[in-house]
Amino acid sequence: MPETIVSDLEGSLLKEPDPFSYLMLVAFEASGVLRFAFLLLVWPLGRVLDMVGLGDVGLRLMVFVAMAGIRESEIEAVARAVLPKFYMDDLDMEAWRVFSSYGRKVVVTKSPRVLVEWFAKEHLRADDVVGGELVVNRFGLATGFFADHGCSTDERVRKLFCGESPDVGQGRLPCCSSVQSLCKEHLYAPFSDGKAYDLPLSKPPPVIFHDGRLVRRPTPSTALLILLWLPLGALLAAIRILVGLLLPIQAIPHIVNLFGGSIIFKGTPPPPNSGILFVCTHRTLMDPVVLSVVLGRRVAAVTYSISRLSEILSPIPTVRLSRDRRVDGERIKQALSEGDLVVCPEGTTCREPFLLRFSALFAELTDRIVPVGMNYRVGFFHATTARGYKAMDPIFFFMNPRPVYEVTFLNQLPEELTCSGGKSAHDVANHVQRILASTLGFECTSLTRKDKYRVLAGNDGTVPDSKDYGGRILKLVDTLIQH
C-alpha cells in the first residue's frame, strides 16, 4: 500500500464541508453571545458569496468576524478544549480508517490551522496540518486576517514532500480541494465502496476531556434557536433557582416537573444521619444538591475548587478541602461524626462517559460507603466548565429547557470489601470506580484532575483562572473589615 496520504478535513474526514459551525463555537466560547449573534447575521452573506463563486472571500469574512480582536491564547484554548469533541462527533469513520492506514498523513483544512492542529495530531494521528495562518499583532490579538506567505496551499503541501507528489489524495466530490491534483492517486467518498480495503475495525483515540458551554454544534438553525432561547432561559433559570432556595428541600421533588425539570432515581437510599459517606460520580456542580433533593434532607458536601459565591448560594452545607491530605482527612472525619456526607473522589467533573481515577482518601476514613451513580442530560448548555465564570455554572444548568438528572443508589459496601476487611484504600477506591462505571455504562480511566487541566489548558495541571469575581469581592470585603 502507498505510504503517504493527503486528506481534506472538511467534507472528507469530516462529513460537514462547511467550517461555519466551528467558527461559531470559537465566537461563543472565546468572545461571547454578541459576537456569536453577529457572526450568525453575517452567515447569509457568506452563503451568497459562496454561491457566486467567491467562497474563499466568504470564508475570510467569517473568520474575520469570528476572531478579530480575540487573544491568540483564547483561540488556542478553544481549539484544545472545545472543538475536538465536535470534530469527533462529525468524523467519517470510514474515511478515518483509510486515512489512518497510511504511513505519513497530512490534513488540509479551509479553517485556520490553529483550530485544527490539536485534533488532527492528537486524535487523527496526522503528521502535519496545512491551513491558513492567522495574523497576530504584537499584543497577542488575532487580527482576523490570514498571513500571506507568498505561496498557495498546494505549494506548501509540495514543500512538505520536498517537491515530490504524495501517493494518495483523499477527498469528497464536489468539494475537494485543489491539493488533490498533486497526488498520484485519488480516493473519493464513499470510501467503503470501490476498492476493497481490508482494514481492521479501529477507532481514533476518544475525546475524554471536553469543555465549553454548548451541547450541540451551532449550525445556523441551531445557533438561531439558542439565541432565541437565551432570554427565556435566563428568566426560567432565575425562577427555578429562586423556588429552589425558598421552598423546603422535601417539596422540591414534587414540583420539579412543574418547572420543566426531571429527577430520576433508582435503588434504595440508606436511613438519614447514620454517618454514611455517599461516594458519587462527578458530572456537574449540582451533583450533591440533586442528591440532597432525592434524599429529602440537606447533606453536607465536600468541595474542592468551587467559587466562594457558589458556596454562599449553595442550598446545602459545604466542607471546603485544602488538598492537604492530613488536614482534609480531619475535616471529613469531623463532618462524618455530625452526619452523612457527599464526596466526589474524581476531584473534578467529566462530561464524557468516562470515570477519572478515584482518590483513595475516602476509603481510609470510613467503612460506611454507599456508591451513587450521578448522570445528567441537557439540551443546550453544559452546567460546568473548567474555564470561565464558575458562579454561572448552576445558572447555565437551569437555563436548559428540560434538565434531567439520574441518581442511582448502589448497595452499601460489605465490610469484606472495605479497609476493615483487609482491603487497601486503593483497592476499595478502584472497586467503587469499577462498579459505578459498570452501572452507568462508562469506562474507567487512570486519568486525574491534573491530566484534565493539562489537556484543556495545555499547562502543568494547575487550575486555570476561574474568573471567580464573587470570590474576589469577598476577599476585598474581608480586607476592608480587617483594616
Automatic annotation (TrEMBL):
GO annotation, cellular component aspect: membrane
Annotated keywords: Membrane, Transferase, Transmembrane, Transmembrane helix
Domain Phospholipid/glycerol acyltransferase residue range list: 276-377
Transmembrane domains' residue ranges: 20-43, 223-247
GO molecular function, one term: glycerol-3-phosphate 2-O-acyltransferase activity
Topology within the bilayer: Multi-pass membrane protein
Pfam families: Acyltransferase (PF01553), HAD_RAM2_N (PF23270)
Subcellular location: Membrane
Primary residence: membrane
Family stated for the protein in its record: Belongs to the GPAT/DAPAT family.
Designated name of the protein: Phospholipid/glycerol acyltransferase domain-containing protein
Organism of origin: Amborella trichopoda
Lineage: Eukaryota, Viridiplantae, Streptophyta, Embryophyta, Tracheophyta
